[in-house]
């Protein structure tokens, strides 16, 4: 019985003990790590469920599944890294709002998870791609939207890692890129969506309203009081970020799949039937033998006649 109790004591989340936050005055605790593991499990669960469902569909019908599987798996990797207390650097805070009794400098050093921004870089384009697909947006316009989305994530990564007030310059550029993407979707894509029917436009408006609220209001507020302004403790920051990430990078992409099937993937142009005409084993061709290149008897007799004629 004592061995069983000892095993229970040894169980649980030991990420902070195994990977200590050396060099950071403000860092996550085991509670913050527990929440990060929870978000990781939710993302991974969606991915595990969607992958088998994807393989039940023909290859030409799977693209909608790709757009939901990718962000969930990317963010599951990012959240596993953060929950394990990895993928971070200590950055000296600009503002002395959060304090601890053990810090030697004021302001102290805050734990900044660059793994979160790497996850954003890989996952954030997919909800934008989904919205673009609702209207059949041209490929080059989708590429532009994705590029501006990546500018947002890169700028905020740099902003989080910069100590001085110049971080707010990168912060502003990132928000500007997000606004450009939203304008692109609400003009070019929305005009294309309206041509596909009122039901499609209603779905687009609802999804875009949620995305714009989270992207242009919730995220800037969260960054301003966490990695940027050093107002909330890292544990509270993980809860704030985790809720927003789950909504925009996990739940919304998954909800897009049944709605796309309801509206009709053929109607939305999400079926790619470009399979090759011939599928099967390749028939090996034999190389001709050297004898086949030799002159035939008729050719040799013709040459002899020409030779006799020349001698005459």
TrEMBL record:
Compartments it resides in: Membrane
Residue ranges of the region described as Disordered: 281-312
Topology with respect to the bilayer: Multi-pass membrane protein
Alphabetized UniProt keyword annotations: Membrane, Transmembrane, Transmembrane helix
Classification via InterPro entries: Arc/bac/fun_rhodopsins (IPR001425), Yro2-like_7TM (IPR043476)
Residue intervals passing through the bilayer: 35-56, 63-82, 117-135, 142-162, 168-193, 200-219, 239-260
Major localization class: membrane
GO cellular component terms, semicolon-separated: endoplasmic reticulum; plasma membrane
PANTHER family referenced in this protein's UniProt entry, alphabetically: 30 KDA HEAT SHOCK PROTEIN-RELATED, PTHR28286
Family: Belongs to the archaeal/bacterial/fungal opsin family.
Protein name: Yro2p
The organism of origin for this protein: Saccharomyces cerevisiae x Saccharomyces kudriavzevii (strain VIN7) (Yeast)
Phylogenetic classification of the source organism: Eukaryota, Fungi, Dikarya, Ascomycota, Saccharomycotina
């Amino acid at each position: 019985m004592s061995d069983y109790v000892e095993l229970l004591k040894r169980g649980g989340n030991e990420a902070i003990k195994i990977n200590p936050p050396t060099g950071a005055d403000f860092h996550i605790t085991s509670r913050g790590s527990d929440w990060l593991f929870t978000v990781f499990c939710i993302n991974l669960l969606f991915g595990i469920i969607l992958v088998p469902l994807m393989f039940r569909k023909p290859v030409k019908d799977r693209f909608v599944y790709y757009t939901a599987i990718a962000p969930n798996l990317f963010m599951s990797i990012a959240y596993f890294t953060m929950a394990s207390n990895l993928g971070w650097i200590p950055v000296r805070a600009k503002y002395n709002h959060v304090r601890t009794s053990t810090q030697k400098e004021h302001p102290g050093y805050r734990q900044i998870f660059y793994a979160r921004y790497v996850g954003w870089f890989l996952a954030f384009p997919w909800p934008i791609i989904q919205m673009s697909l609702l209207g059949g947006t041209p490929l080059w316009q989708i590429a532009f939207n994705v590029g501006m989305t990546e500018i947002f994530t890169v700028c905020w990564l740099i902003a989080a890692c910069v100590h001085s007030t110049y971080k707010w310059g990168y912060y502003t550029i990132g928000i500007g890129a997000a606004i450009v993407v939203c304008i692109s979707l609400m003009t070019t894509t929305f005009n294309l969506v309206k041509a596909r029917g009122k039901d499609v436009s209603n779905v687009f408006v609802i999804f875009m309203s949620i995305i714009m609220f989270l992207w242009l209001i919730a995220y800037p507020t969260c960054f301003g009081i966490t990695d940027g302004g050093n107002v909330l403790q890292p544990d509270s920051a993980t809860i704030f970020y985790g809720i927003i990430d789950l909504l925009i990078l996990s739940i919304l992409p998954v909800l897009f799949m049944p709605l796309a099937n309801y509206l009709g993937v053929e109607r939305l142009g999400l079926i790619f039937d470009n399979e090759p005409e011939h599928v099967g084993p390749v028939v090996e061709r034999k190389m001709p033998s050297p004898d086949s290149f030799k002159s035939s008897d008729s050719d040799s007799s013709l040459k002899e006649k020409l030779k006799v004629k020349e001698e005459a």
